[in-house]
Amino acid sequence: MPRPVKVAALGGQTYLSSILRFFVKSLASKTSDWLGYMRFLIIPLGSHPVAKYLGSVDSRYSSNFLDSGWRDLFSRSEPPVSEQLDVVGRVMQYVNGAGVTHQLPVAEAMLTCRHKFPDEDSYQKFIPFIGVVKVGLVEDSPSATGDGDDSPVVSLTVPSTSPPSSSGLSRDAMATPPSSPSMSSALAVVGSPSSPYGDVIGLQVDYWLGHPGERRREGDKRDASSKNTLKSVFRSVQVSRLPHGGEAQLSGTMAMTVVTKEKNKKVPTIFLSKKPREKEVDSKSQVIEGISRLICSAKQQQTMLRVSIDGVEWSDIKFFQLAAQWPTHVKHFPVGLFSGSKAT
C-alpha cells in the first residue's frame, strides 16, 4: 500500500467541516482502500473542539498547537510587531513527525429545512460531522453559514480510476433518514451568538441509547431499545461525537449535554403587605451518554431552529436528526498525529 499523502488543514473548525464534507463526497464513489491514501494534518486557528480532543491523546500535538503562545498569537486582531513564536517550525515538526493515523468517526446530521417559498414542501440536507452540534446559547466564535450554496468552498480532487458510481455523494439527493434507532456521538448544538430565541428555547429531544451497557451516568435503568424524551425549556443542547478527552478508544455512540431553565418559584416575604417575589432562575445541567440516535424539534411548529454543526451555522431548520455513523463506507476521517495508542 502506498504511503498516505499528507493534507494540511490550517484554519478553524468551519474550514475543517468544509474539508470533511468534500472528503466524504469525493470518496463515496471510490473503493474502501482509497480511505488509506490520505492523512489530514489539523493545524487549528481559533476555537477548535477537534484539535482540543487530539491534544488530549497526543501530548506533542498539544504542546505544538494548544499552548497559550499559539492561542494568543492567532486570537489577536492585529499582527504582532515581531514573531515571537516559530510558527513555521511548529508546522514543519507536525508535517514531518505525524507518522500515525488516528481515525475519527464520521457521524450524520439530517436537517429538515423550510423552503424559501411558502407553497413548496420542506427539503432535507445531509451533513457529515466529527465534532460538535449545538442548539441554544452558543458562546464560540462567529459561525460560518452553510445555507444553500453559500457554504465555504473547498476543492479536494481525488483522481478517478473508475467511472463514478451512481451512489456518489450528493447527500441532498441521496440517502434516507435512519429508519431504526442507530445514531452516534457527534457534538451538536442548536443556536448562535445572535440567537432569536432570547436566552432559552422550548425543545423536544427524543433519543435512543446505543447498547444496554452504555447507559446514562449514575445507574440509569431505562430500556436502551425504547425512545426516551426530554421536553423542556432549554438554554442549550449539545451533542458530541468525540470521545472523552484523553480517551483514544473510539465510541460508537454520542454524548449529549443539556442545560435547562428551572421554573421560577414564588418566595414569600416576611412582610404581608408585599407580594411574593420571584426567585432568580437557576440552570440545571445534565449529561446523557451512549446515545445512538437523536431527534430534536421545537415545541412550537412555527419556530425554526438555527443549528451549528462543527462551527457551520444552518438556519430555517424545522427539526433535525443525528446518527452516530455516516451511512456509506466512508465512516472515518483519517487524522495524522505524532503518537496515539489507537493510531494506525
Major β-sheet annotation: 11 strands, mixed
Mean pLDDT: 78
| Radius of gyration from CA coordinates | 22 Å
Strand content: 25-35%
Apparent shape: globular
The total beta strand count reads: 17
Low-confidence stretches: 138-142, 148-196, 212-218
Structural class: alpha+beta
- Amino-to-carboxy terminus distance: 14 Å
Tally the helices: 5
Number of domains: 1
**SSE order, as H and E?**
EHEHHHHEEEEEEEEEEEEEEE
Pfam family, one: Pacs-1
Organism: Rousettus aegyptiacus
Domain Phosphofurin acidic cluster sorting protein 1/2 C-terminal: 1-339
Protein name: Phosphofurin acidic cluster sorting protein 1
Note down, in words, how this protein is organized.
By secondary structure, the protein is α+β, with helices and mostly antiparallel strands. It has one domain (5-337). It has helices spanning 13-27, 49-57, 59-65, 68-75, 87-97; strands at 5-11, 38-44, 100-105, 107-113, 123-129, 132-136, 144-145, 189-191, 201-209, 228-240, 254-261, 266-267, 277-278, 283-298, 305-309, 312-323, 332-337. Strands 4, 5, 6, 7, 8, 9, 10, 11, 14, 15 and 16 form an eleven-stranded mixed beta sheet that branches. The protein has a two-stranded parallel sheet with strand order 1-2. A hairpin with a 2-residue loop joins strand 15 (305-309) and strand 16. Helix 2 (49-57) packs across helix 3. The longest helix is centred in the first third of the chain and has 15 residues, at 13-27. The radius of gyration is 22 Å and the shape is globular. The model is unreliable at 138-142, 148-196 and 212-218 (pLDDT under 50). Residues 151-186 have a biased composition (Low complexity). This is Phosphofurin acidic cluster sorting protein 1. GO terms for molecular function: transmembrane transporter binding.
